[in-house]
Amino acid sequence: MNIKRGLKATILRMRRFLDEEPSEVPFDNTYPWLGYMFHRLMGEPGCSYKPMYIWGIVQGAALGKILAMDRVSVIEFGVAGGMGLLLLQHIAEFVESNLDIAIDVYGFDTGTGLPKPQDYRDQPNMWFEGQLPMKQEQLQSHLRRASLKLGLVKYTVPAFLEETPAPVAFVSFDLDLYNSTRDALAVFEAQHERLLPRVICYFDDVIGHTYSDYTGERLAISEFNCRHTMRKLSPIYGLRYFVPNRYSREFYWDLFYFAHFFDHPLYNESDSIRKAVFADYQGNTYRRPINSDWRRELLN
Ligand SMILES: C[S@@+](CC[C@H](N)C(=O)[O-])C[C@H]1O[C@@H](n2cnc3c(N)ncnc32)[C@H](O)[C@@H]1O
Question: Looking at residues 19-28, what average pLDDT do you find?
Answer without folding.
Answer: 79
